[in-house]
## 1
Amino acid sequence: MENKSKKRLIIIIAVLLIVTNVFTFTIATTGNYLLGNKLIVSVDSKETANGIKKLLQLKDQISAEYYQDTDDNKMMDGAIKGMYDSLGDPYTAYFTKDEFTSFMEMATGEYEGIGVVVTEDDEGYTTVIASQKGTPAEAVGITTGDKIIKVNGEDVSILGSDAVVSRVKGPADTTVALTIARGTETIELEVVRKAIQVQTVDSQVIGNKGYIQISEFGNNTATDFEAQLTALLAQNITGLVIDLRSNPGGGVNQAVEIADRLLGETVVVYTVDKAGKKTEYKSDATQQLGLPIAVLINEGSASSAEILAGALQDTGAATLIGTKSFGKGIVQEVIKLTDGSGIKITNSEYFTPSGNSINKKGLEPSVGIDASDFMKNNRFTDEEDVQLQKALEVLGGTN
């Protein structure tokens, strides 16, 4: 009997040791342990632990004392948004499930809205980088630098760009009223939303020169560029103008692929992260255009547009013409979370092949020429486009 009791005790102790070890292993390897509605979390500092405790205490106080019913999910989403907003980086953000779906629709170039790409300036205003080509925003004259301060009469000047975008978007063939601040002028606009399917590449032959406009870098931009460049080369062009004016950027890989088609073996761009890790994006030696190139840029040329323009300028493959570019030289990673929400976080800075950082600086054109007053206030032809005409002049020969 005594032996049986001892054996039973040994078994109980063994089981307890196994459970304890599993518990310890779970916390050590996953950082948390869930028991009912209790969560044990491993944090990196006492300050973080105190912050989480404070957050939960305040959440409970709101739930208990606020005069209306509260939504736990909305409160937690708001807390997470606040954490990202505290970084002061307009390109780093947390998206709810609906917001992330909307963001990804715009990133792929298919959505319903007005077709405008925005950012937040240093004062928090939602500011236009560029209107996408052939969209309602372009048709009503929304342009780089415009600030969206009201949507359907609601003051949105301090709501942040994500909230503004969600209000501007909507079903096709519905109207949205916008109040735009342009310098000291306030402009009231009514814009009819449309189904946006952005065509990012357009081309033509001007005299004996090829002209390719890239309005932004979408999923198929490099493929479309290759197809249209091949068609231009079949017409025996003697030079190429690449128009990146008011191009707000997009997929870095698309810009690198296009550079790969134009350049020989070289570094196109490299990034450096917080830990100092350097990552190079290179073109190979299989293709090189072998024609003189002029690239048009302006204050609306940003991000991937600056990567392509910077690579062409630094390697001596092209002459940059126009005005200083926007100056967005940081890279964002987009991550979808398991519940359908998502984050966009700046994780590195990029540099041109010669090591220049353009963030908040922009690219300086080799040939500076501003758009004419007529171009800024009217639709214009190729002949009236003074920047394009300068590019054709720089390329030389017959236009």
## 2
Amino acid sequence: MYLTTVTKPTNADPVRGRVAGNVVALGAVSLITDISSEMVAAILPVFLFLNLHLSPAAFGAIDGLYTGATALLRLVGGYVADRTQQRKLVAGIGYGLSALMKPALLLAGRSAAAIGAVIAIDRAGKGLRTAPRDALITLSSAPESLGRAFGVHRAMDSTGAFLGPLLAMAVLALTAESFDAVFITSFCIAMFGVLVLVLFVRDHRDPLEDAPRVEFSQVRGMIASPAILRLLIASCILGLVTIGDGFVYLVLQGREDLGIAWFPLLSVGTMAVYMLLAVPLGALGDKIGLRTVMMGGYVALGLVYLLLVSPIHGIPSLVLAVILYGIFYAATNGVLIALAGPVIPAHLRTTGIALIQTGQALAYLVSSIAFGVAWGLWGPVAACKVSAGAVALAIAASLFLLRRTTEGLAA
């Protein structure tokens, strides 16, 4: 039974509480890559919604595509990485593909369809790389320190997300608000991240003659495992109540009448909180239970949605919303994968992680489109109220689903 299959990696750091060097190297790659990607992500909502005047539904489709498009290649990348045991190579292809799409935004011009196509390819690259990268983290770490390992990685990742918008603001200020300059700078930084991956990240694979052969029948059997099936359903439910950064920041910008020049600072504030709390909350999850910390994060998300419809305006309300949003990310990003790692067989680790991430990505795509439609029909206030109620239901359902999955693990 897959629930009892807990594999301690051969290259894990043998000292309890320490983080393997490979995790730090992967974190460095993510830090650099996130500087690149968040430079673009920070200006994209303003460019699409306020500059190109897209409707809320159209913006929701593109915003959902930004994450949902990763679903198409997550399972393919995960299966190929497990089948060939070339996790680093598959991840590298994904990083490279995303990097090449940054200058492609120059060719897209003001066409929403072309921008959507470039984003889809960029996110497909993310889909290829995410599961192999996270599998390498789990295979490089001892099971009892997975929360800390993912916390360190996500803290480094969020440092890049913190610096990216600031760099985008600096480039815009120095180039008379040239979006093209942002895209070119982003491309150069992304290619540097690929170089760091090639030089410093170690792959994790057994000799092919000793490794279990990965077959589709094994994947079907893994999905049928009750523990993994519950994790998959929970990931979909939680993805359905996550409306996305773009909408959250646009509602905050409209509520407080922020100037466009200040818009990227909303992302900066969120990532600053995420960066500071990712490691402490990951370590806390190892002690009190990863599930408990993750559900606390979704409580914070629900409070963010309530603040978006609160009659109280002003800087304190805005700052509180940004802090809570950062807590949500720090308490949830990577935690579900840390929960899944020990219950997935080592030779299927990448495929299993990709399966759960695919569920979340597809659910997020549906959520973003639905929220955009709801905004267009009812307005942002009513849409946020519905989202807050949905979060409460999702927390209750996930607590029930994950209760038995986490028995005997870290909860």
## 3
Amino acid sequence: MTATQPRPRLVSIAFWCWLAGAIVLMLGGLLLAFSNGPVPVFFRGAGVLWIVAGALLSYIAGRTRSGDTRFRRAAVALSIALAILLALFSVMTGGLVWLFALVLVIVPAVLIMRPAAQEWYTPESDV
């Protein structure tokens, strides 16, 4: 990536989708972890893990937006892992919120690997 190239629109769209997915993950985790009702310990622990995963995803997405190739790969790997866990969790709980978070996490992973976005991350010396 060079300073003269503007950031592709796909990178910006992927960042905002990752940020929205991270917010949904953290809000869902907060609801699970701190609800007053009779929630099993497993779900409270999963809520804390969703909070941590959402915070981590938002941090990595921010670094990805600045043009760091290592963080782009890390964000894609985290998105795939979260997509698998969100699919399993939505089957276990039957909640549609987790499917919404799943879409917000997996779509940017696909967008950021598109050729237009991938060229922006490739330094000119490697071309």
